[in-house]
Amino acid sequence: MAGGIQLMLLTGFQLACDGNPVSLPMSAQRLVAFLGLQERPVQRNYVGGALWLDSPDDRAAASLRSALWRARQPGLCLIEAETGGLRLSREVTVDIKEATRFAHRVGDPTVPWNDADPQLETLSGDLLPDWYEDWVLVERERFHQIRLHALETICLRLTQQARFAEAIEAGMASVRAEPLRESANRCLIKAHLAEGNRIEARRHYERFRQLLNKELNESPSSDLEVLIHGDENQHFERAENIVVDALLGNGRASRQRVRFNHAVNAPAET
């Protein structure tokens, strides 16, 4: 782990200084986490109102003063007070901010992306998953969407580079985060198809179709169906061409083509 002060909010609250864990009371954790999500200093009354939503203004202000006192650590500056309000110390690095910047770089086609390491671990978790306050829920959903789009983009880019194992890993991470999201499932299916694993693609499609029907009584879009069945048609077409090419010159090509089409298109016996 890098030196300095690190605030980790993905998968849970953790605070460390030079790799050593720092323990804070819950009220101080809430304050540090809230400030860690802000991009600029925020007024004290805004912080108090957000963190102690159901308290009167004077009680919220008192709770904020108590949390500020509890956040003090010997030799450690976590919170800076400015004329514009409160902010997390500039010495503190916040994992969700770094992950968000990485996700935006991945999604911007004009920004060069160092794809040697897709950094999937950077996008491995949601914000404070065991916290349920309103201000957390809003930020969690915002990052969740950013994370999903980045994972799908990584999956597609790695697929284009024929790095199929990593592409499938990114696609599975996206599906795991949101199993009913069709765009995530589509990216994973495309990776399987590009690698030549048509049966694996079909198997995943069937799992997604059944889950969608069970949970929402819905079906996959026609585009996804075309992706699966269109690939099957292309597979049969390539197989037909191989048979025909092998028979050219012996006078039986047209007859065998008809037989092949009949075998492929005939309904399955029950």
The SSE order reads EEEHHHEEEHHHHHHH
Strands of the biggest beta sheet: in what spatial order?
Answer: 3-2-1-6
CATH class of the largest domain: Mainly Alpha
Named at the architecture level, the CATH assignment of the largest domain is Alpha Horseshoe
Stretches where pLDDT is under 50 for at least 5 consecutive residues are: 250-254, 256-260
Please tell me the overall pLDDT: 87
Distance between the termini: 61 Å
Indicate the topology.
Blueprint (H helix, E strand, L loop, with lengths): L4 E4 L5 E4 L2 E2 L4 H11 L7 H8 L5 H14 L8 E4 L2 E4 L3 E3 H13 L26 H27 L3 H14 L4 H14 L2 H19 L5 H26 L5 H13 L5
Parallel strand pairs: 1-6
Antiparallel strand pairs: 1-2, 2-3, 4-5
Keywords:
270 residues; alpha+beta; Arc Repressor Mutant, subunit A; Serine Threonine Protein Phosphatase 5, Tetratricopeptide repeat; 3 domains; 10 helices; 8% strand; elongated
Describe the structure.
There is one protein chain. The chain is of the alpha+beta class and 270 residues long. The chain has 3 domains: 5-90, Arc Repressor Mutant, subunit A; 95-218, Alpha Horseshoe (Serine Threonine Protein Phosphatase 5, Tetratricopeptide repeat); 221-270, no CATH class. The protein is 59% helix and 8% strand. The chain contains 10 helices and 6 strands; from the N terminus they run E-E-E-H-H-H-E-E-E-H-H-H-H-H-H-H. The chain has helices at 26-36, 44-51, 57-70, 95-107, 134-160, 164-177, 182-195, 198-216, 222-247, 253-265; strands at 5-8, 14-17, 20-21, 79-82, 85-88, 92-94. Strands 3-2-1-6 form a 4-stranded mixed sheet. A two-stranded antiparallel sheet has the order 4-5. Strand 4 and strand 5 form a beta hairpin. It starts with a strand and ends in a 5-residue tail after the last helix.
